């Protein structure tokens, strides 16, 4: 029995955090205008007002108290800004990191952190502008160029990103991260051959670049080339618990009906990542294809327990229960839950209709 729904883990990974979408408040907009109305080296705008009472995590409260005692300490503002960033309080992070820059305009790590805070709050324009301004002051900053190129790639400014990469490679002709970002750009624009070539250069120059090995594993899997296993094994050499490599290797075997090998790597994946519902789901589908309905049901049950909002897991648990002749009441209930949670509920609705349920 073949099933058309499989879930592979070969999704693109970025070294930057995934962009989050938040509302931009008036305060954030005003802080952006203030920041860009003055030169970054200008310290004359440092606030002398009494600090506001700030609540947050114990670490944030602690740093806030230290700022009250030492209000001209740039490192404290930067530290609190980074703590706000970790809590996804981006407006506060932007404010504090801007203050840190006003107090110490020579510390480039502050600019990078500020760019991250803007970027992760879905404000790519000021994020890119900050990095570009840093490079106007010093065009040799490879780390800044890498961050800029990666952000440009994420917002699909591929020509600009590749242009930034070229500037990196002009200074460091075999820079592995430069080739990796180039590969991501080529991948996104559909130039698979150049993407593979770039990722291969990445691992030649950095034999421990796990992201590039994952990418190569995925590309060679699609080409039905057993070199995929070599690249995934290299990723596992670097980190034997790596979720993406384990599931990708299981998926490689799964789609080729090499069930014993697939089971081995799904089990490894679930042992290292027991709260990953997708691994349990894939493992359940594998056992359905192995004609082991009871184990399949158990795997789908775990997936539902791990993630009660995982609609497709309810669907497959109901599917396995129906095939095993389990109680019709719970089977219908699972199909109903699947229909409510799945983005496309058609299969669940068809199952309910087949069972004579609403």
Task: Name some characteristics of this structure.
358 residues; mainly alpha; Serine Threonine Protein Phosphatase 5, Tetratricopeptide repeat; 19 helices; 0% strand
**What's the alpha carbon Rg, rounded to whole Å?**
25 Å
Share of β-strand residues:
under 5%
- Stretches where pLDDT is under 50 for at least 5 consecutive residues are 1-53
Could you say which overall geometry the principal axes of the C-alpha atoms support? Answer: globular
CATH homology-level superfamily of the domain at 1-18 and 25-38 and 52-138: Tetratricopeptide repeat domain
Derived structural class = mainly alpha
The helix content, as a percent range, equals 55-70%
Count the E strands: 0
* CATH level 1 name of the domain at 1-18 and 25-38 and 52-138: Mainly Alpha
CATH architecture of the domain at 1-18 and 25-38 and 52-138: Alpha Horseshoe
Helices and strands in order:
Blueprint: H1 26-37, H2 58-69, H3 74-86, H4 90-103, H5 108-120, H6 124-137, H7 142-154, H8 158-171, H9 176-188, H10 192-205, H11 210-222, H12 227-238, H13 243-254, H14 259-272, H15 277-289, H16 293-306, H17 311-324, H18 328-341, H19 346-354
């Amino acid at each position: 029995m073949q099933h058309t729904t499989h879930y592979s883990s070969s999704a693109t990974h970025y070294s930057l955090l995934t962009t989050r979408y938040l509302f931009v408040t008036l305060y954030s907009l005003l802080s952006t205008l203030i920041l860009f109305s003055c030169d970054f080296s200008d310290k004359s705008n440092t606030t002398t007002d009494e600090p506001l009472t700030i609540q947050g995590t114990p670490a944030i409260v602690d740093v806030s108290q230290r700022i009250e005692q030492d209000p001209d300490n740039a490192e404290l503002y930067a530290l609190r800004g980074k703590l706000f960033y970790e809590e996804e309080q981006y407006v506060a992070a932007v404010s504090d990191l801007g203050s840190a820059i006003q107090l110490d305009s020579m510390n480039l790590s502050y600019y990078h952190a500020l760019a991250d805070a803007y970027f992760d709050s879905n404000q790519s324009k000021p994020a890119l502008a900050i990095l570009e301004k840093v490079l106007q002051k010093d065009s040799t900053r490879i780390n800044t160029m890498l961050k800029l190129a990666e952000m440009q790639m994420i917002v699909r400014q591929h020509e600009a990103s590749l242009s930034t990469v070229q500037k990196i490679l002009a200074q460091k002709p075999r820079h592995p991260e430069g080739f990796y970002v180039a590969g991501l750009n080529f991948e996104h624009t559909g130039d698979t051959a150049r993407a593979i070539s770039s990722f291969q250069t990445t691992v030649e120059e950095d034999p421990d670049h796990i992201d590039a090995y994952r990418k190569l594993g995925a590309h060679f899997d699609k080409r039905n080339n057993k070199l995929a296993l070599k690249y995934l094994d290299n990723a596992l050499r670097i980190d034997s618990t790596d979720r993406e490599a384990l599931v990708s290797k299981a998926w490689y075997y799964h789609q080729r009906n090499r069930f014993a090998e697939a089971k081995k790597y799904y089990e490894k994946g679930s042992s290292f990542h027991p709260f990953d519902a997708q691994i349990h789901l894939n493992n359940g589908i594998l056992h359905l294809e192995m004609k082991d309905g009871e184990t399949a049901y158990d795997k789908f049950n775990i997936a539902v327990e791990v993630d009660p909002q995982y609609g497709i897991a309810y669907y497959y648990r109901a599917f396995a229960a129906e095939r095993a002749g389990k109680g019709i009441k719970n089977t219908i209930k699972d199909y109903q839950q699947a229909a409510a949670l799945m983005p496309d509920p058609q299969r669940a609705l068809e199952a309910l209709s087949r069972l004579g349920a609403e």
